[in-house]
User: What shape does this take?
Amino acid sequence: MSPSVIRAKLVLLQQVLADLKPNILKSHAEQTDAHYEIERQVQVAVDLCLAMARRLLFLKNLPSPDTAREVFVLLGKSRIIPNKLALGLAQTVGLRNLLVHEYGKIDYTMFFGGLKGGYKAFAAFAVIVSKKI
Assistant: This one.
C-alpha cells in the first residue's frame, strides 16, 4: 500500500466520519432507528483505520501481528501513536467483529454511549496518519 493509497483511505475515513458525526448528536431513539447505518459507519471506520495501521507498521519495518487488535497495540508500544489511543482503537476491533460476525447481542445503550469517544479516536488516528505519510 503506497502513500497514495493511504491518502485515499484517509479521504474515505474523513467521509465516513462526516457521515457519522450527525448520528452522534441524535437522541437515543433516533440512533436506535438508524442503528444499521451507524453500525456500518463504525465498521468501515475500523476497517479503514486497521488498513492504514498495518501499512504504518510495514513502513516502519515492524512485524505484522497475528490479530487486528495487536496491530493497534503494537502502534502504541512502538510510539507511532499514543498508547491510550492505541488501546482505544484496539477495543474497536472487538466491536467490529461483533457487528460483522454477529456472534453476540449488541448492547445499544453502551454502543451509542461510546459513539462520541470512538469518533474522536478515529479522527485523532486520521490526523496522526496524515502526518506520518
